[in-house]
Amino acid sequence: MNTRETLKINARGHLEIGGADACELARRFGTPLYVFDEKHIRDMMAVYRDAIEEEYGGRGLVLYASKAFSCEAIYAIAKSERIGVDVVSGGELFTALEAGFPAEKIYMHGNNKLPYEIAEALDARVGRIVIDALSEADLIEEEAEKRGVVQGVLLRINPGVEAHTHAYVQTATPDSKFGFSVESGAAEAAASYVLSKRHLKLYGFHCHIGSQIFEKQSFVIVAEKCLKFIAAMREKFGFETEELDLGGGFGIWYSEEDPKISASDYRGYLDALFRAVKKACGGYGLKEPFILLEPGRSIVGEAGVTLYTVGAIKEIPGVRKYLAVDGGMFDNPRFCLYGSKYTAVLANRAAEKAEEIVAVAGKCCESGDLIGTAFNLPRAKTGDLLAVLSTGAYNYSMASNYNRNLIPPAVLVRGGEASYIVRPQSYRDLVRNDVIPDYLK
Ligand SMILES: *Cc1c(COP(=O)(O)O)cnc(C)c1O
């Protein structure tokens, strides 16, 4: 269920992903290539679903945060695992609907939902819209009234906890473009505003405190803070919260700096979270709310691997050695954006000992176009197959056509057999929407 099962080295010394030989995949589909292990994705969805079932009496729903990796197949998998999804744009909503995903299990997010996105959400009859601005409450009210419906909504609050990796901070004066601050009273005012709307039904509250979090206590603290707020809302407005959405953010393994989290470790986080919710509800005499969780990265991150072919090799004596690959920031911008660390292996020589530290560069016209600066690898040659691990989340979904490079296709491996879930782009796709005005012809 973690990378240790998704990835193996086979008898030929090749890396296997979900039982498929990486060299065979590269031969058949070419590189660069995103490869996803279906079993890993399903197992992770089940971890969350089962925890809710077994530790919280089934009174909750996992929403896969589809911004991590959005394409029709992932919504089809989520549907077959009987979980929900969250979407953050009209484009993600459209993709989910195209895949036949049930609208009532779609939660719509975003800090600036556009009027047409709100209209699309109402037309689709999505389950909930998560309000993140008062102007959104007005827009949703207007569109719901036009249609003669009542739209279910949550309110995004900022409970004043920010969590990153191994630390969390409790911020008194939170500066964030997301949510309404509890501390400042903005959350209470927004709740009152939403409650005054006739075509909105407020089910409860949402918060999301960060990403790539390993600190169990962060989730416990945020649950406690939300329930304190929920108790205050009952006090103030007699409002009974039915749903509490605690967001995503569970961490994954990328490099030796991160712990390897097993299924039972994730279960430990969730059990602690549910205990905290029950305890706080007991303390305040609150009915235990329906709980939503929104994992993105932890569902797809370690399920994905990117395969590249090593091209130009450049050694700058006394400085560093660069391996250039046939991908780069156009398929994985995370090093450029955040300096994110990854682990790589030579997939065609996966059993060989690492001998040197190299930088892996992309093929874009930017000196910052790197996948990383410190990969520990056997001495690579042009033509070797490089696998970068844990690229399932926020890689394809952040890809671009920079330098008119083609966004790589994606394949899904099931029982060792691979099939396309995103077909390759062509040069034709690049010029499809280009127009030369007549006067330039
Ligand atoms: C990004 C995001 C998530 C998912 O976060 P992960 O770190 O990928 O689990 C969930 N909810 C909201 C509102 C988000 O913005």
Attribute tags:
9-stranded mixed beta sheet; TIM Barrel; 24 strands; binds pyridoxal-5'-phosphate; alpha/beta
How would you summarize the topology of this molecule?
Blueprint: H1 3-6, E1 7-9, E2 15-17, E3 20-21, H2 22-29, E4 33-37, H3 38-55, E5 60-65, H4 72-80, E6 84-87, H5 90-98, E7 106-108, H6 115-124, E8 128-131, H7 134-147, E9 151-158, E10 161-165, E11 167-170, E12 180-181, H8 186-195, E13 200-206, E14 210-213, H9 216-237, E15 243-245, H10 263-284, E16 290-293, H11 297-300, E17 304-316, E18 320-325, H12 334-338, E19 344-346, E20 356-361, E21 370-377, E22 385-389, E23 410-414, E24 417-422, H13 427-431
Helix pairs in contact: 3-10, 6-7, 9-10
Average pLDDT level:
95
Secondary structure tally, helices: 13
Number of E-state strands: 24
Overall tally of domains? 2
The end-to-end distance, rounded to whole angstroms, is 57 Å
Write down the oligomeric state: single chain
Radius of gyration: 23 Å
Label the overall shape: globular
Strand content: 25-35%
Structural class: alpha/beta
The poorly predicted ranges are none
The CATH architecture assignment of the largest domain turns out to be Alpha-Beta Barrel
Describe this protein's structure.
The protein folds into 2 domains: 7-30 and 303-431, Lyase, Ornithine Decarboxylase, Chain A, domain 1 (Beta Barrel), CATH 2.40.37.10; 38-298, TIM Barrel (Alpha-Beta Barrel), CATH 3.20.20. 32% of the residues lie in helices and 27% in strands. The chain has helices at residues 3-6, 22-29, 38-55, 72-80, 90-98, 115-124, 134-147, 186-195, 216-237, 263-284, 297-300, 334-338, 427-431; strands at 7-9, 15-17, 20-21, 33-37, 60-65, 84-87, 106-108, 128-131, 151-158, 161-165, 167-170, 180-181, 200-206, 210-213, 243-245, 290-293, 304-316, 320-325, 344-346, 356-361, 370-377, 385-389, 410-414, 417-422. The mean pLDDT is 95. It binds pyridoxal-5'-phosphate (PLP). Residues 65, 67-68, 86, 109, 208, 211, 247-250, 294-298, 393 line the site of pyridoxal-5'-phosphate.
